[in-house]
Amino acid sequence: MEKFTITTTNDQYDVLIDYGLRHQLDTLCRSILEGRKKALIISDTKVYPLYGEEVKKSLARLLPVAHVTVPNGERAKSLEVYRDLLTTCIEEELDRNSIIIALGGGVIGDIAGFTAATYMRGIPFIQVPTTLLAQDSSVGGKTGINHPLGKNLIGAFHQPSAVVYDIDMLQTLSDKEWLSGFAEMMKHAYIQDPNYLAWLKEHVNTLDDIKKPSIRSSIRRSMKIKATIVEKDEKEAGIRAFLNFGHTLGHALEKVSGYGELTHGEAVACGMLFAMRLSNTLQLSTWDIEEEKAWFQAIGYPVDIVFQYEPEALIEAMRLDKKRTSKGLTFVLLKKAGEPMIQTVKETIVRQLLQRKEASS
């Protein structure tokens, strides 16, 4: 079993990665679970039928367990679903000695974590990720929901008590979900580890390559990069903002396309490539855009989809992004792999690039 510990200013928790861990939650998390009044599993309508009862059975060896399911996908991160989850917490008589189990992908981690962060001013929760995308979102304590005007505008920092990653559960992912998660692994390599990026480019050049057994070691490497950054900057006051590489345009694409039409990772992949083009335009870098684009396309990312949407609609969405400043749109740019930087960019420059499909410099 792969295991490492994340230490932040006020919290410390273990990340466990292996096959079959969903059957061992009572053993692996005994010190967290024992003596608590009740556990509430929050999952979605797709994941719970696959794994929910197995997780419930494991937890029930230590404490009473209830469960609730929410709609599958980004639509679950709404004010309405959040309100319903709070109602469930009250009806199930959860108290501050209870615990929430987030069983699902990044969306479930976000909304279950936000429910835990705000119910009775905060109760503990355990992340049990079921997607490749959640290798990023399950670490670091960012929780939240969407507002109709923008993604993740409502949220809180609330660290989990543990992350238990059973990679057996990745076997039921769709191709789009594999692609969504791998984009975040690419992001970690681009911003932090040129050697890791070179390894990914050598070993992953098709969708099928992402699914190979070597993914286990890659997941650990990616999560360790995220953990190292979070330990240094828990509340995104500095270097943690680099983890937003690809997300300024990515979040705008998710909103403009209609939440759920593009996966988070597909949108972020488009955003990363755009950020590299922008870095070149501002003469901060000399990326070979055609080479990078060819890699993205070979794996299966729809990198040109950005040009299907009106530039003004995308810019308006970026204006509402929580990373925006009064001076322009804020992007994470790359001088080169491992050298990210925060840059405020004039809207006119962004607009010009969004209008030119052939832009490559």
Strand coverage percent: 15-25%
- SSE series: EEHHEHEHEHEHEEEHHHHHHHHEEH
| Overall number of strands | 11
Instruction: Provide the CATH superfamily of the largest domain.
Output: Dehydroquinate synthase-like - alpha domain
Alpha plus pi helix count: 15
* CATH fold naming of the largest domain: Dehydroquinate synthase-like, alpha domain
Q: Roughly what percent helix?
A: 40-55%
- The termini sit apart by 44 Å
Q: Specify the structural class.
A: alpha/beta
Regions with little confidence, pLDDT below 50 for 5+ residues: none
Taken together, the total number of domains comes to 2
> What would CATH call the architecture of the largest domain?
Up-down Bundle
Strand count, sense and closure of the main sheet? 7 strands, mixed
Sequence of strands across the biggest β-sheet: 1-2-9-6-5-3-4
* Gross morphology: globular
Domain 3-dehydroquinate synthase C-terminal: 181-323
Binding site for Zn(2+): 184, 247, 264
Family: Belongs to the sugar phosphate cyclases superfamily. Dehydroquinate synthase family.
Keywords: Amino-acid biosynthesis, Aromatic amino acid biosynthesis, Cobalt, Cytoplasm, Lyase, Metal-binding, NAD, Nucleotide-binding, Zinc
